[in-house]
Amino acid sequence: MDSPQQQLESLSQKIEERERLSRRRAWLITLIPIIFAGLFLTYTIWQIAQAELKLAQKTSELASVDNEIIFLRTQLPEAQTTLGAVQQLTDELQSDLSLAQAGLATASAELTEKQKELIGAGDLIRSACSINAEALKEYSSNYTPQAQVLLYLLETQFYKDIPWNPGGFSETDGFNSPDFSIFVLQNAVSGYPLISLDYPPGTLPWNILKVTTAPQNGDIAYYQSGYSMFYFELPVSYGSSETTPCVIGMTPLGVIAQKLGFAQELGFLKVPYP
Amino acid sequence: MPPFTSESFLDQLIYNQRRSIQYYLFFTIGLILLGGVVIVFAFLSPALFASANIAPDVFKIAGAFVSSLGGFQVREILDRKEKIQTFETFKGHLAGLKKSPKSERTKTEKQFEELMWKYIEKATLS
């Protein structure tokens, strides 16, 4: 058993130890929040630094974009000028294109018309009536008014080259089909017009001649298409009694001889031969 | 080392408590000064923080936090002051008892010392 003196000394040492422990605890209690705060602060600073870094990058990018915008703004007037020139050029090209399209449309229409004419010409050529000159010699030797009309027609077909002209009324200017018939009736038989010379251009044969259902050589066949052609039954060959019905008159190809049924005929007109 | 008596032991306890108060006082002042230095530095050198991409306000808050930790030590100081006052009271009472006649004081002194030791054990070792 310790003496009271020893007990007091032991107690004093315990108290001293207790105080030292208390001081260490005070340090610990103070340091722990400081350490945590330091860690949080470091993390916050790191985050701020990262954010600042990103901000700097974005600012740099923004500055770069600003520079590009400024550069583009300086280029803008020139670009606008170029654009205006291009626009003007485009307008001109558009105008030229419109003209070209109009020309193309016209050419296309003309081509279509020519194709139609070509098709018509092809039809006429396919329906051509071949004339045997040797056989024709005997036929025309009797020199009747019908023969004279035939000779006149053949002469115009092979030698005079009279053009198709709806507005003309002469061998030089040309004719349309009815006017050519009128002209032939007035002039083919020299000194003896088959119809009055008073009939002006534009007179239609079917208005002045009588219709017949039994056509003879030299009569006129008229067609739905407006053709007015002279009807002849021509010998197929020399010395042959076989004949082929042909019509001769003005067409867009000039004066030609066609087979009777080359187009839809409306009827026949009786020519008053003497 | 002189032999311990109740009075000398109380003196020793009071000395220890005063030394602890001194220690905590310096500790508190150190923390407050440390926080203050951080705050002042943040105020005076914002350019330094700006160049390091750190907001000075963060350091101001950190300084304030460090300074506020000093407040925890005040409790220790006040606690020890109370103990010192108690020990001083014990000491005065013992001195009063010693002046009274021995026939009167024997029982009272013993009761008082028992009470005092209980308090000392509780106050210093608990």
pLDDT < 50 stretches of chain B = none
Strand content range of chain B: under 5%
Note the total helix count of chain B: 4
- Sheet bearing the most strands of chain A, described? 6 strands, antiparallel
Number of strands of chain B: 0
Largest interface: A-B, 26 and 28 residues
| Overall 3D form of chain B | rod-shaped
Give the CATH architecture of the largest domain in chain A: Alpha-Beta Complex
Helix content of chain A: 55-70%
The domain tally of chain A reads 2
Into how many domains do the coordinates of chain B divide? 1
- What name does CATH use for the topology of the largest domain in chain A? endopeptidase fold (from Nostoc punctiforme)
- Quaternary organisation of the protein chains: heterodimer
* Termini Cα gap of chain B: 27 Å
**Sheet of most strands of chain B:** none
**Which series of helices and strands of chain A comes N to C?**
HHHHHEEEEEE
The helix content of chain B is: over 70%
Strand order of the largest sheet of chain A: 1-6-2-3-4-5
What does this structure look like?
The complex is a heterodimer of chains A (274) and B (126). Chain A contains five helices and six strands. Chain A has 274 residues and is an alpha+beta fold. Chain A has two domains: 1-126; 129-270, endopeptidase fold (from Nostoc punctiforme) (Alpha-Beta Complex), CATH 3.90.1720.10. The longest helix of chain A has 123 residues, at 4-126. Chain B is mainly alpha-helical and 126 residues long. Chain B has one domain (6-125). The interface between A and B is medium-sized, with 26 and 28 residues.
Secondary structure layout plus pairing:
The complex is a heterodimer of chains A (274) and B (126).
Chain A: H1 4-126, H2 133-140, H3 145-160, H4 177-187, H5 205-208, E1 210-212, E2 220-223, E3 228-235, E4 243-251, E5 254-259, E6 265-270
Antiparallel strand pairs in A: 1-6, 2-3, 2-6, 3-4, 4-5
Chain B: H1 6-44, H2 46-51, H3 56-99, H4 102-125
Helix pairs in contact in B: 1-3, 3-4
